[in-house]
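testing teh design pipeline on a random one, pls ignore if ur not involved
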């Protein structure tokens, strides 16, 4: 189904962003926070809360980017 594909794609983007940020030396505490949002998204997706899962994966991606901000 299309919604499941969207959830899977958003998860893949979030995980890729976190892994890339980690490789680039991102802040470990912020990356841990990002992984927490991936875990929440996984829980939401498993519970049929696709919209919430997508929001969680978006937050994970956001925190991955923040981990690289050195200002």
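output:
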């Amino acid at each position: 189904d299309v919604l499941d594909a969207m959830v899977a794609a958003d998860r893949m983007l979030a995980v890729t962003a976190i892994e890339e940020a980690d490789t680039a030396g991102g802040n470990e505490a912020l990356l841990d926070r990002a992984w927490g949002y991936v875990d929440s998204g996984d829980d939401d997706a498993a519970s049929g809360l696709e919209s919430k899962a997508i929001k969680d994966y978006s937050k994970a991606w956001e925190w991955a980017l923040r981990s690289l901000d050195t200002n």
